[in-house]
């Protein structure tokens, strides 16, 4: 390998269960030097913790083992391709042993397997739960010491140091626990180019490259508001980044792969789940205020304009606890008088569930609206979702009795999902993000029987906050001429995502004039109005701009009410948040509507 050239780093997984054939494809179709993957999220670490409690040999995500088939293993060995991922979760040592065993069964014995540990801090909880030791990441004044519920997992987000050390020691496959999503790409690029840990700008660029790659097909047409422009937009190829020694990088699709890499698809992934213009990581803070995405050929773009600075002395600490139970049941209503049917069910529940105050949450929500004069029963139906949470499983008995009886005595046409297991409450796993000083972590890389301790960053800087700013030098809306009432999404793209209780959404447009209008139109007050009945004064809404992307970005703090694990929303990950807002009707200049709708 000529390590003076740019390194080609591919992704083969963006979540647990993703891309069963992606690893085979990216190593076969090439050219690729290193393959990275992301198998973890806050919640599946907790699930794995519960699994490991039953069987200590478990605790890792099996996705990589499923992807590593006989042909793929031999291709990796023959081509000298490196692999770095976070599938080790709570047991990277166990996954390393399982990978080695699987490779041996294929007759592949030349690959050196390494694992990185130190993110799992369950053994340190006694010290971390002392007052003042681990403040909450989002909620001022809350401490880890405030948590009284049983903690099932405690994982710090570690950086690239262990990955670099393992690769320098000759590892071919590096298995991490809860490293940051972008760290496999960062570590791979830093090892390849021999970067120093204080080369902030190049590290920042590799951080954003990792952010773009880590969700797999989200960068190549998946979850894309312009999906109608992409033929057969499913089973997409996975993205590849080509990162030069100065940190500049391109993102591209391998030849023949489905999907699309364009300014819009990469903008969509870049704004996904970000919390502001500064992107924090244990190795660097990336400033994306001036980020640019420019075409560089078919299915290829160049990303530039990213600068970096020292990382904070702390890193995120993901805490998952058990406590309480929840259940949800789906009823359907069809035809006429939907509002009255919903009101009937709510009134009946209010009267016939006597211990309502024993529930943390007890609600019925309507999802969807039947068509007028529907041509099929499906088009004339909507869903009523009953959702409840309580401290004890026996609390739900009154609700179960009510729902069973109401299924016969309820509104006309009532029918329900016949999976009666949904009537049984299941344990709640709650997630909260705290912080931990990086120097308290004992990160180690294990390679070929040797243990390599990893030092924390030597240079850090206390993070001063996102410094949300908006350029107020915008033009008046009347300047854009006559308007028409249409959905915002007719001319505006969006991508949304979650971080705990917060939802983010980035809006962007195609032309400079549309960008001027978007900046003038999309204010915080406008965002409150677009949220409609979803809005609460308790939410904190922050706005910032990415001018080179023609993007206005919002962070709505608190709207997910605890997030995927504890909130009442079906979409606790805010995947559809942007699409909801694109569907809202606004007064849009008619001259923009002369262009084709998205």
TrEMBL record:
Domain Acyclic terpene utilisation N-terminal: 7-447
InterPro entries, per database record: AB_hydrolase_fold (IPR029058), AtuA-like_ferredoxin_dom (IPR056362), AtuA_N (IPR010839)
Residue span(s) of domain AtuA-like ferredoxin-fold: 487-586
SUPFAM superfamilies referenced in this protein's UniProt entry, alphabetically: alpha/beta-Hydrolases (SSF53474)
PANTHER family referenced in this protein's UniProt entry, alphabetically: DUF1446 DOMAIN-CONTAINING PROTEIN, PTHR47585
Stated name of the protein: Duf1446 domain-containing protein
Organism: Plectosphaerella plurivora
